[in-house]
């Protein structure tokens, strides 16, 4: 099996001055995950490596650079899932630099969703990278929150999907939620079937967008189901977004891989930051529009 990786930096509006940063960040994330895959690493390891890069980049809404909630604090959600149907997730956590890594630790321990203080305690006990919760507040987001500004290029959830040389699929998502969300609000990111899904026999998907719209249409699982009848992931992704549009209001996007390593993505926002790498390329392909 030939490895493949695709990442997204969110379905959103990307202003001209943010295009280069989105390209660079998604490219770096795809390169990090690709290095794992060609080094013989597994899909989950590659997904974690890619998302860690996005979590450390203030361009994106995940960990450093996350939007601030109603109390002016960073609260994070993340999840990871392997095609064996093993998964792990955290939600409404503070003071964790890389929630995707904590989600993976949970998956490897015993699949479950841990929230708030319980998840933070698990992270600390697992020797995850902890910090003061204030350390994750980026200057740009702080100024926007303090001045109560409308953000044109609002950040959004990040994610990754990978296929490794053994034919294993994995998907991951990570987010800081929505601007000034109520404390304790949890969106789709940590919800299996909505924010992500992976099944080695069918495909893997990571979503981004308005969680309250994504959850009722179970967007990630819907996209996976549309891969039946050997549909190309591009068609399946578009059908999933069309389904969302037909049923609810809201912006969303998804990236999709099938067991053959075919790539697809779709969105109904103005832009979606995406980058991918396959064995037939000499460098990562990156986009902010399809």
Your description of this structure?
The chain is α+β, with helices and mostly antiparallel strands. The chain contains eight helices and twelve strands. It has helices spanning 16-38, 43-55, 99-109, 116-125, 139-146, 211-214, 219-225, 233-247; strands at 4-12, 76-82, 87-93, 113-115, 158-163, 169-175, 196-199, 203-209, 252-257, 263-267, 271-278, 285-287. The strands form two sheets. It has an eight-stranded mixed sheet. Strands 7-8-9-10 form a four-stranded antiparallel sheet. A hairpin with a 3-residue loop joins strand 7 and strand 8 (203-209). Helix 1 (16-38) runs antiparallel to helix 2 and helix 7 (219-225) crosses helix 8 (233-247). The radius of gyration is 17 Å and the shape is globular. The mean pLDDT is 95.
Summarize the structure.
31% of the residues lie in helices and 25% in strands. With 290 residues, the chain is of the alpha+beta class. It is globular.
| Strand runs, count | 12
> Helix content range of the residues, please?
25-40%
Element-by-element helix/strand order? EHHEEHEHHEEEEHHHEEEE
Secondary structural class: alpha+beta
**Could you describe the largest sheet, including whether it forms a barrel?**
8 strands, mixed
> Measured on Cα atoms, how large is the radius of gyration?
17 Å
Mean pLDDT, all residues: 95
Shape: globular
């Amino acid at each position: 099996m030939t490895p493949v990786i695709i990442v997204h930096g969110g379905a959103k509006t990307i202003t001209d001055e943010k295009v280069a940063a989105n390209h660079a960040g998604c490219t770096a994330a795809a390169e990090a995950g690709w290095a794992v895959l060609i080094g013989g690493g597994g899909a989950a390891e590659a997904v974690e490596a890619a998302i860690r890069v996005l979590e450390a980049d203030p361009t994106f809404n995940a960990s450093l650079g996350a939007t601030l909630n109603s109390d002016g604090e960073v609260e994070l959600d993340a999840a990871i899932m392997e095609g064996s149907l093993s998964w792990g997730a955290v939600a409404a956590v503070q003071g964790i630099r890389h929630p995707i890594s904590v989600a993976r630790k949970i998956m490897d321990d015993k699949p479950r969703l841990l929230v708030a203080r319980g998840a933070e305690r698990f992270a600390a006990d697992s020797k995850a990278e902890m910090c003061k919760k204030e350390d994750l507040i980026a200057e740009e987001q702080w100024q926007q929150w303090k001045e109560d500004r409308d953000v044109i290029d609002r950040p959004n959830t990040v994610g990754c999907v990978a296929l490794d040389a053994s034919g294993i699929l994995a998907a991951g998502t990570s987010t800081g939620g929505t601007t000034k969300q109520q404390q304790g609000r949890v969106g789709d990111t940590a919800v299996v079937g909505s924010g992500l899904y992976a099944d080695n026999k069918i495909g893997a998907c990571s979503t981004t967008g308005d969680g309250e719209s994504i959850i009722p249409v179970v967007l990630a699982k819907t996209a996976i189901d549309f891969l039946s009848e050997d549909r190309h992931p591009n068609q399946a992704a578009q059908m999933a977004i069309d389904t969302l549009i037909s049923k609810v209001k809201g912006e969303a996007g998804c990236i999709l891989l099938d067991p053959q390593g075919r790539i697809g993505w779709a969105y109904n926002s103005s832009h979606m930051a995406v980058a991918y790498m396959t064995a037939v390329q000499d460098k990562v392909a990156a986009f902010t529009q399809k």
